[in-house]
What we know:
Blueprint: E1 10-11, H1 32-49, E2 54-65, E3 76-86, H2 94-111, E4 114-120, E5 127-132, E6 137-143, E7 149-154, E8 158-159
Antiparallel strand pairs: 1-2, 2-3, 3-7, 3-8, 4-5, 5-6, 6-7
Amino acid sequence: MTSLVVVAAVLGATACSRIAGGTEQARAVIDETHAYLRADQHVCDAVASIGMDVRLGPDYRNSVPMKGLPGAESGRVNVEVRYSLELPPVEGDVFERNRGVFQRLKDWWRGQGYQVVRHDASEPFTVLVVEDRRDGFTVVLKQGKVGNLWLTAGSPWVTATGVKPPEPPGCRTARAPE
């Protein structure tokens, strides 16, 4: 249903500035236009919970039609946004730092009511997939061979609007206390 997300603006400890609606409006996501906004909200909320300066690098934003799938309905799409996470440099083991990021996000997501769907902690290709049961969105945190991280959020099937993917939001972050 969902693949990966990567990250693209400066983030940290507060929510996104341009994204309308929060979890109280999650069930209102009924079309492609709103799905992009909701996917970005999932990303911004997750990045804010990391507790350090994070820069998001947009990777892709797209919607995939439901064509050819069992039970496919015309006019339905799955929306995905993916960002690369650019964390502050570390003096030492980048994988150790990333293990902390994975654990913080896993704990935060559980505390927010997300369900862990998959957690493959094998390195270097660590993957954590969660689902927000309130709105059906999935979020994936993935680590690459050299410790690079991506964050992806994807919608359940929503009504297509044909909208051009909006620009990535201006998520805001705050530095962790020193």
